[in-house]
Automatic annotation (TrEMBL):
This is High-affinity iron transporter. It is found in: Membrane. The lineage of its organism: Eukaryota, Sar, Stramenopiles, Ochrophyta, Bacillariophyta. The keyword Magnesium does not apply. InterPro entries: FTR1/Fip1/EfeU. The chain crosses the membrane at residues 54-76, 163-184, 196-214, 258-278. Residues 315-326 have a biased composition (Basic and acidic residues). Residues 296-326 are annotated as: Disordered. Keywords: Membrane, Transmembrane, Transmembrane helix. PANTHER family: IRON TRANSPORTER FTH1, PLASMA MEMBRANE IRON PERMEASE.
Length: 326
């Protein structure tokens, strides 16, 4: 009797759908917590949230279609799947996704009103959370996650012996992945203070980008030759390929580390931290300029001159001050 459940398949679905759910959840959180300007030409929060859902659904649909179109002929014709090509595709996809997530991590404080821009000699909050950026980031990352499921499952399609295990393994794995993604989303929603939400989301995305970058580089390492293994956990509980520790895999966790993995992990994480530090220092400088402009215009309270929490009342006060100075 064929096995109706395959642990490896379940893990693949859990990991990929968890990453996709986290990305969708982070976008929804940022949109809901951001101060979208009330401009007739700008998209509303409801429109942006709907765009997240639509983009994710369309991307997932096309990814499934691509997987089916590629998988069925291979399974029927029993062609051998070139694993090296799959690893190159997966590695490049992860590196590109890591850069996209890093960019998203850097933009979140800006979207939530913490980082500012100076344009034409005027200091203002930057609202570049656009429909176009939502479509690209959501669609690309959801498509990548679903397509990666297909890439990982192609060897099972070619083997043909465990195809019957796909439905149950997919249901359980997807359920686990979406549950974890929902818990991350719930944590974001339950934090009332916006600066706590900003810090939490930024850190989650920073580690997600780091994990994707390390994973992509490791794919190249497996093709070109692996570097020396520095350490490895012996207990199966700590395996990054099995539950529960597979949950931490997207964030850069691994039960074993090669020299390249250690180097890329800390280098990418260090670059990410440095970029945020540069943005933070720029924000402090511009905030100081805003206070100086306000001081020259008229005395104001600390809440209106130095607060950058993005609350509507404070934003209105700040706008009035700058207008008076001009």
């Amino acid at each position: 009797m064929p096995n109706l459940f395959d642990y490896a398949m379940c893990t693949i679905f859990a990991r990929e759908f968890m990453e996709g759910a986290i990305i969708i959840g982070e976008f929804r959180t940022v949109i809901q917590k951001s101060d979208i300007p009330q401009d007739a030409n700008a998209a509303s929060k409801d429109q942006m949230l709907r765009e997240v859902t639509v983009s994710a659904a369309i991307a997932a649909f096309f990814a499934v279609m691509v997987v089916v179109i590629v998988a069925i002929p291979l399974a029927v014709l029993s062609k051998e799947f070139d694993e090296e090509v799959a690893e190159w595709i997966e590695g490049i996809s992860k590196v590109i996704a890591a850069l996209c997530i890093l960019q998203l991590s850097l933009k979140i404080p800006k979207w939530m009103g913490y980082y500012k821009n100076k344009k034409d000699g005027k200091i203002s909050q930057s609202f570049d959370l656009t429909i176009t950026s939502i479509r690209f980031n959501v669609a690309w990352n959801v498509w990548r996650e679903v397509a990666e499921c297909g890439v990982f499952l192609l060897p099972f399609f070619l083997d043909g012996n465990n195809l019957v295990a796909i439905p149950l393994s997919a249901v359980i794995g997807i359920s686990v992945g979406l549950t974890v993604g929902f818990l991350v989303y719930w944590a974001n929603q339950s934090m009332k203070e916006k600066h706590y939400v900003c810090i939490f989301v930024t850190i989650v995305l920073a580690f997600l980008a780091t994990g994707l970058f390390v994973g992509g580089c490791h794919e190249f390492e497996e093709i070109l030759g692996e570097t020396r293994e520095v350490w490895a956990a012996k207990n199966d509980f700590w395996s990054h390929k099995e539950l529960p520790m597979v949950i931490l895999k997207p964030f850069g966790y691994s039960s074993s580390r090669s020299l390249l993995q250690i180097t890329t992990f800390w280098c990418f994480l260090g670059v990410t931290a440095a970029l945020h530090l540069i943005k933070f220092q720029e924000m402090k400088r511009l905030d100081l300029e805003l206070q100086q402009l306000a001081t020259k215009g008229k005395p104001i309270s600390n809440s209106s001159s130095s607060s950058i929490d993005g609350d509507e009342q404070d934003a209105e006060k700040g706008a009035e001050v700058v207008k008076d100075v001009e």
